[in-house]
Design goal:
Distance between the termini: 38 Å
InterPro entries: Fumarylacetoacetase-like_C, Fumarylacetoacetase_C_sf, Rv2993c-like_N
Helix content: 10-25%
CATH topology of the largest domain: Fumarylacetoacetate hydrolase, domain 2
GO biological process, one term: carboxylic acid metabolic process
Structural class: mainly beta
Pfam families: FAA_hydrolase (PF01557), Rv2993c-like_N (PF10370)
CATH class of the largest domain: Alpha Beta
Keywords: Metal-binding
Number of strands: 20
Shape: globular
Number of helices: 4
CATH architecture of the largest domain: Alpha-Beta Complex
Protein name: 2-keto-4-pentenoate hydratase/2-oxohepta-3-ene-1,7-dioic acid hydratase (Catechol pathway)
Length: 258
């Protein structure tokens, strides 16, 4: 299933829906309530092209795995961590799959980081790797936008990683996919900058969920970012960055002048 969150063509409150079909024939079937209450389709249908897709969930928090790809750690001059590194983004950082970002005034080095994102389906804590699949609703695509100069200057990454609009998500949650070996590609203005695979993650999906849940309770709709492969780089005003994960879809962000 592909579960999206959207604003109907006629306007009104955001709703959840199931995306069916491909290309110009794709439709969205409205759900009664949220997918965390059970999947309950209604009779309301609309062409996907006529609605506005939002971030597919509204997380209370986004927990992120740092340096979870060895080559990415090395490209920034860092060692592969002895234990997993975790940082957080906030609900205000989350934006949709086709959005604009004002170039932040406090940086001269805005970077992209394409990532596979895990969406949590139910409240959980201290999850074992063997039980992680039981608490996962599905997967989506993320761009962990980063103020690289601020990240290097400050001893913790809260401002550099958690600024407003720093976590584009979407286009939907894919529930039926094996996340162990998915192609992940990032382009800037159509030029490939990242071309990796989730098979290279140091800590796999189950391990990521287990690790963060040992100390932090995860709620329905929370998101866990799994790290980025090598190839990250800077963005300038006028750039369009697109992150695509195999079997899920693409998140596109345009960088505009503040």
């Amino acid at each position: 299933m592909r579960i999206a969150r959207y604003i109907p063509a006629a306007g009104g409150d955001p709703a959840y829906g199931l995306v069916e079909g491909e290309g110009p024939d794709a439709v969205i079937v409205r759900l009664d309530g949220t997918p965390f209450d059970g999947i309950q389709p209604t009779d309301e249908r609309a062409a996907l092209a006529d609605v506005t897709l939002l971030a597919p969930v509204e997380p209370s928090k986004v927990l992120c795995m740092g340096r979870n790809y060895a080559e990415h750690a090395k490209e920034l001059g860092n060692e592969v961590p002895d234990i997993p590194v975790v940082f957080a983004k906030f609900s205000t950082s989350v934006t949709g799959p086709d959005s604009d970002l004002l170039y932040p005034a406090l940086t001269e080095n805005l970077h992209f980081e394409g990532e596979l994102a895990i969406v949590i389906g139910r409240r959980c804590s201290k999850v074992s790797p063997e039980k992680a699949a039981d608490v996962i609703l599905g997967y989506t695509v993320a761009n962990d936008l980063t103020l690289r100069d601020m990240q290097r200057a400050e001893k913790q990454w809260t401002r550099a990683k958690g600024f407003d609009g720093s976590c584009p998500l979407g286009p939907w949650v894919e529930t039926d996919i094996d996340p162990s070996s998915l192609s992940l590609r990032t382009t800037v203005n159509g030029e490939v900058r990242q071309d990796g695979t989730t098979a290279d993650m140091l800590l796999d999906v189950a391990g990521c969920v287990s690790w963060v849940s040992q100390t932090i309770t995860l709620l329905p709709g929370d998101v866990v970012l799994t790290g980025t492969p090598a190839g990250v780089g800077s963005l300038q005003v006028g750039d369009e960055v697109a992150v695509t994960v195999e079997g899920i879809g693409t998140v596109t962000t345009r960088i505009i002048a503040g």
